[in-house]
Amino acid sequence: MILNFGLVIYSTNTWGSEGKGVISIVIADLTIVSFMANIFVGSSMSYFASKYKTEEIIPFAYIWSIIIGVLLPFALSFHHGVEYSNYLIFLSVFSSLLAANVNLFIGQKNIKMFNMYTVLQQLVHIVFILGIVYIFKITSVDSYFIAQIFCFALLFVISTFQVLKKCNVKKISFSKQIGYRLFDYGWKTQLSSFLQFLNNRLSFYFLEYFKGIVSVGIFSIGIAFSEAIWTVSRSLSVVLYADIVNRQNTNAAIEKTKVSLRVSFLITLFFIVLMLLIPGKVYSMIFGKDFSNTKEIILFLSPGILAIAVSNIIGYYFAGINKLRILNTKSLIGLVFTIISSLFVIPRWGILGACIITSISYCLSSSLLFWKFYQDTEFHFRDFILSKSEINLLLNKAFRKK
Fold this sequence. Notes:
Blueprint: H1 2-41, H2 43-48, H3 54-80, H4 85-107, H5 111-134, H6 142-165, H7 176-211, H8 213-244, H9 250-277, H10 280-287, H11 294-320, H12 325-376, H13 388-399
Helix pairs in contact: 1-3, 1-4, 1-7, 1-8, 3-4, 4-5, 4-6, 5-6, 7-8, 7-12, 8-9, 8-11, 8-12, 9-11, 11-12
């Protein structure tokens, strides 16, 4: 989270709101490609890692990454032009290949490796940016994308060696049945994720169309704060998901989900309050004068940020027990609201309108997940409050001597 903020601060101060807008649009396109690639390299890789041998599933992920990574950016170039399409192709291929390895680690409950590569993706990217800008003197926004390509490529090569050490290369095979199961599980989970992504990012495209690329850059800072805060809930969700797909006890999975929900709710609330206590002038000083209304953006996004932080936990619970229809439904509800309201609100109220729409969309989609989860389980207000024993357990784990 700290590294991500460092990268955001550097990019806004170096390339301004316009440069940040370009980065946001290209990364949004990369995310679209990733959703298609993740049919084989995403949750399906984690879910089936404990059910099949690595050499039976990893070939599907690698081949699919290359095919989608080349074809989809080419198709997107017709909409955005070809200025950054070449970068997008390399970013798409290497990020998808790396994701296959990282998600395999999750399925194997190797959370240490997942954590390491999550941090390295930010750290190595920053190191390469500084090298390209200050050693090779490429000071344009292109340096951001060049550095990210080299970052993904390097980490993919290193992680592949670690994957292949536990894989019998001679037994690599392509089973039609396994391929079908990977695809069937993958497209269902990715449909939900893609719809949720559109809830998260559709405002970018509406703002670009109605208000210009600068407004995208300004609004993206608020979204960057949202995603930084969600680091906590996403980390908890990954650990929860890895545990659920490797266990059979439903009651234990429900109780662990509720504990994760409590932790996510309280920590997210703490970070939101902390950011709202920071004076608006501080944000201008850190990010530049173009971002003077960052605190206002965070304020209007905060109800949705809190809702998603909690619903992330419940969403991964449903994914872990292979109940995917509810995830698609909740994302579709939020998306329909976002599309209809954006057409009327963003042209009139711009960035403020995008914040309000995004927050309401998050709350609507999250409410459905809450309702479904507590329809299947008992609801208690203590589900959002840590008990004394849980607080002591967290403190002991956080500060225990190695």
